[in-house]
Amino acid sequence: MNPDHHCCRTVPLHRSAVGAILHLILLIAAIVLLAACSSKAKQEALPAGSRVLALGDSLTAGAGVAAEAAWPALLASRTGWEVINGGVSGDTSGAALRRLPSLLEQHDPVLVLVTLGGNDMLRHLPQQETVANLQQILALIKAHGATPVLLATPNPSLFGAVFQHLSAPDFYREIADMQQVPLIEDAIAEVLSKPQLKGDPLHPSAEGHALLSEKIFGELQAIGYAR
After folding, report:
1. Is 45 within the bounds of a domain?
2. Mean pLDDT of all residues in the chain?
3. Residue 42: what pLDDT?
4. 155 within some domain
5. pLDDT confidence bin for 43, thresholds 50/70/90
6. Within a domain: 173
7. Same domain assignment for residues 26 and 63
8. Which of 93, 120, 193, 203 is catalytic?
9. Does residue 77 have an active-site annotation?
10. Is 186 a catalytic residue?
11. What is the domain-level CATH number for residue 215?
12. Position 44 in a domain
């Protein structure tokens, strides 16, 4: 008999071996799924007194309403946090990026809510410039040791305004995914889509800010930052 014949013969797997292999595959899949779920686990809630910076433009500054009626002040009342209103009317992402280092140094926040990009779109600035600025803003916040949350601003749209259905551009989601930061995507768009919640064509009224603060609080609660 040719000795090579035995070397090349295929040995069938026993059923128990097949079962063991399938069990191993299922175990690996379960571990991967568990790891994925764990990566989306809720964050630790910030206690009362935590310092939070709201970095933005007129939507954050509260154009057209009293300072205590703007959403950062209402969020502070709801959470007990010290929320610094870092909104400047007319600010672009580039202008906010330039003033961010001094704000971080001065206030040393643990959480920064970034609401920018609206004025970039109104001024038709290149989208890649806006994206680059927002990326740098988020990176600076992380480097300072704070946690950023990105809030999407809807794209100014006559169609969206007429049909009361504004929506945020896709680049906010792309930035959030790339930087691995939470995104509050629809809160501002949902408020600005309703004419009865606006004080002018671009800004929420006091009622709009009240609803916006509730939506932002709910999103932060879902993430785990707010109780």
Report:
1. no
2. 86
3. 59
4. yes
5. confident
6. yes
7. no
8. 203
9. no
10. no
11. 3.40.50.1110
12. no
Residue 23 annotated among the catalytic residues of the structure: no
Task: Evaluate if residue 194 carries a pLDDT over 90.
Answer: yes
DSSP H or E stretch at residue 91: none
Q: Is 32 exposed, middle or buried (0-12, 13-18, 19+ CB in 10 A)?
A: exposed
| Domain total in the chain | 2
Which range of residues forms the domain containing residue 181?
Answer: 51-223
Q: What is the DSSP letter of 85?
A: E
- 94/191 Cα distance (integer angstroms): 25
Give the pLDDT confidence score for residue 29 in this predicted structure. 47
CA distance 112 to 181: 11
Distances, alpha carbon 111 to alpha carbons 47, 51, 52, 145, 215, in Å: 12, 7, 5, 9, 17
Q: Are residue 16 and residue 95 in the same domain, yes or no? A: no
- Statement: the pTM of the whole predicted model exceeds 0.85: no
11 has a pLDDT exceeding 70: no
Residue type, 25: I
Annotated catalytic residue: which of 58, 93, 193, 205?
A: 58
> What percent of the chain has a predicted confidence (pLDDT) above 90?
74
